[in-house]
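User: I'm writing a short methods note and want a consistent example. For CPBP family intramembrane metalloprotease, I'll paste the sequence; you return only the structure tokens, no commentary, since I'll be parsing the reply automatically.
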Amino acid sequence: MLTNWIRTHRLVSFFLLTYAISWSLNGVVIALQMEPSWTRWILSGFLSASGPAIAAAIVVHVSDDDLRVWARGIVHWRVHPKWYVAAIGIPAAIALSAGAIAALLGGPIDFGAFSPNLLTLAFGILLGTFIGGGQEEIGWRGFAQPELQQRYGGLVAAIVIGVLWGGWHLPLFFDPTAPHAQWPLASQLSYFVGIIGFSVLLAWVYNGSGGSILLVMIMHGSENALGALVPLDVDLVIVDGVPDWGLLVSLNVSHVAVTWVFALVVLMVVGTGLRATRLSAAGATGTTRQDERV
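Assistant:
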């Protein structure tokens, strides 16, 4: 029976379901050539991004694990404040460092216009955490990371997830209305390299915070929102209302390079285990105290 196969192939089932759910929804949007609208956003922006969470919930339920125990990680907020600093501060530092490097390389960055609106950024992080990509982490880190690292360790788990996470985004590169499809090849390739590096950082925060899914949701949301910290020279980047993506290659590549610098520093400090535990995805939260670790 299908349920027995899922029980004995939890990880494969999770990844297959994740791709099936998300790619089906994205496929509908692309096939119907849907223009920007609330319906399109619900399908490809919210429900598709929720594919990993839905897949994880299905596998946990079919495996007869307690969904409530597993879901505790989503509301596991009582962790050392340093992990909140890491979850928001690292994406901010990556964005600003990448912007500085891109500016030195002649990119269209105007730090003279640097004037961040903290309220707007906070609202962006909030939206990104719960409905703008952060919900993916319920599956990627909340299920797949603890399952994989039981067998292969934290780093290998993070890299495997990073590769599959990157591949999961492929429909965006075939959607003519999505910016990903309009990026130059260098930006597209750097995106996939960067997502693996960020997966390492997310795994470290997940493990270090004692299995807090909420913390990695915040970190993912911050990564998506805090790119707005970089003050682009809009007059150069936007031509007749259309972004010149070629001008942003230096920023995109710099972002990836800085992400990997942070990931390598973490690996040098904590090791390739990334503070991995031996807990299953169904009980990754609330049974250990790791939030005092580096």
